[in-house]
Amino acid sequence: MVPRLFGVVRTYPDTLDTVTLALEPLDGPPLAFRAGQFTMLHAFGVGEVPISISGDPTRPDPLLHTVRDVGAVTHALVTAAPGTAVGVRGPFGSGWEVADGTGGDVVVVAGGIGLAPLRPAILEVVSRRSDYGRVVLLYGARSPADILFADDMATWAQRHGIVVEVTVDYGPPGWSGRVGLVTTLVARAGFDPLHSLALVCGPEVMMRYAATALSARGVPDTRIRLSMERNMRCGIGLCGHCQLRELFLCVDGPVLSYDRLAPLLDVREL
Amino acid sequence: MRTLAEYLPEHPFFAGLDPASMDVVLGCAQNVHFAAGEMLFQTGSPADTFYVIRQGRVALEAHDPRSGTMVVATLSEGEVAGWSWLVPPYRWMFDARAVSPVSAVALDGDCLRGKCDQDPALGYALMQRVAHVMYERLQDARIRLLDLYGEAP
Question: Which CATH class is domain B4-144?
Answer without folding.
Answer: mainly beta
